[in-house]
Input
Amino acid sequence: MSAPFTTVAGLAIPLPVANVDTDTIIRIEHLLDNGRAALREHGFAALRLRADGSEDPACALNQADLAHAPILVAGRNFGCGSSREHAVWALEVRGIRVVIAASFGDIFVNNCYQNGVLPVTLEAPQVDALLEEAQARRPLTVSLLEQRITTTDQRHFAFSIGPWQRQRLLSGGDDIALTLADRAAIDAWQRHDRGHRPWIWSAHS
Amino acid sequence: MKPSTLFDKLWRAHVVRELGDGWALLHIDRHLLHEMSGAPALTELMERGLPLRNPELTFATADHILSTAPGRRGDSYAPGAKLWRSLRTHCESLGIRHFDLDSGEQGIVHVIGPALGLTLPGATVVCGDSHTCTHGALGALAFGIGSTEIVHVLATQTLAQRKPRNMRLRFDGAPGTGVGAKDLILSAIGRYGADAGSDYAVEYAGDAISRMGMEARLTLCNLSIEFGAKYGFIAPDDTCIEWIAGRLHAPQGADFERAAAAWRQLRSDDDARFEREECIDASRVAPTITWGTSPEHAMPVDGVIPDPAHADAATAAAWRKALDYMALEPGRPIAGTPIDFVFIGSCTNSRLDDLRAAAAVVGGRKVAPRVEAWVVPGSAAVKRAAEAEGLASLFTAAGFQWREPGCSLCVAANGERVPAGARAVSTSNRNFVGRQGPGARTHLASPAMAAAAAIAGKIVDVRCSA
Output
């Protein structure tokens, strides 16, 4: 169940680091913690904290003016690694609704969609241009309706997203309810498959 | 009919409903659950009052947050006990076949799925774990999913997915001595990058793959996600079909023959189009090890640690950070680096062939003083077999710990950690910062390389480890 997504405007957190994996976004032991407060406390600890456990003031994720920034501009292959959806929840608890990068972990992308977070894939030079905006603390406006990101000096960066996925984000809501409404199609598929591939259906003995 | 890739055929065969713009609702043939992601999803399903649609296609085991200490029980690691109990209770009440600790078949989900004949060619297989791509070694369309997706599969036995592009990665030529599947795939990740497979389904092919045994293929496909690919697979051939025959939950007798006939049809058409094709000469790949904090930081063991001075600005910054974390100096040979820890295990390399390869390197020798070395078999069945053929006693005589099956030091969420600052050679799949424990330094390598490092007390070229 996710909240509808339309336009997100605000500052962006610059995080020009490649291959930020989901272990780095949230360590595995915090998956056993109760509640999402732990995700806020421990999110990005490997990047935010110095070896002695103190906050690194040079890390954008620690800077007060970005504490509620709704956009993250990241390096390539953001969200690679483990399938943990907690990585997206760790973004959500900071109020991040949009992540912009040149490439993403594919499982992370699906987890974003499940939670009403928009992953935007752009060419590397475009990501670099938006990174400059983020570093200069100039806000960005991300419009899902118009499928573009706009800078304060009115430069536009178009992004692509399929109509089905876009509609899902715009309306929010519950995928399971949608699929269950199509129960007859699943029933029919399985009826046919039982005759066609009986070996799939006989393992539970 | 237009020529198709195997991936496109498997995809089409599972479409329940086209959703437009590349998305489709796919039928899921096998849903594998483990205690860490599976138990909370089952709880959510029950709390939402949704029925489990197909218990007969759903299977469970415990692996992630269990102790692997000798004599362990499901609740030995207290923080994991609640989810272990929860999985057990849910499986009982919902009629899910559960390979629990007392079943004799417990193990890492990606080890037992194929070994029990649950994973079959042409099947869609999902699990709340990114290394589900492992099952692609049997020609399955297998992929890792998140928590919300798990609940969706439990309730509907389907999942909405966007079709990725097709890539074929060929390995041709005969790998040299000391070079196996782990070296081939690490070297590919090093060459093309940890996001090369992003938004691709990768079919592995070539004569080095055709000659490869099934356990090696499982290792190769396991690291697809480290290549950026959610799906990595190999078309089923006679090697694969013979390996499946007779497995506990595989079809038997005439049913098997009928299935095998269908499986033999599962291959890419000769003139199928792949959006990207790459080829690696397997004969030129050296035993491979990682030096940094991404699997793409892979290098031949006889090479020198890369120098950020020779990289572009962004890469150089990442390399400096990685070198700093790993406490390594650029320009020096990686061989000879002293180590503290060795871990042989994980869904990548904990099968019987892996343990045999490690044992062959150990021979009658001892683990170096001050090195802590663990062998964690991938399943109860692997453990029994290794004990029966004398591998376990060889390892313990050499000074290795011989432990109970589970994810152990690969995931380090079970009370088992490589100590901060310690340097480990591990047969697992991720060398991320802190992956094996906060401050732990991980070098990924094959079981043979890990065994050689344990004996020498330093990183060594397995070809020189006599």
User: Anything to note?
Assistant: Chain B touches chain A through 83 residues (CB under 8 Å). The domain at 6-164+250-263 of chain B is CATH 3.30.499.10 (Aconitase; domain 3).
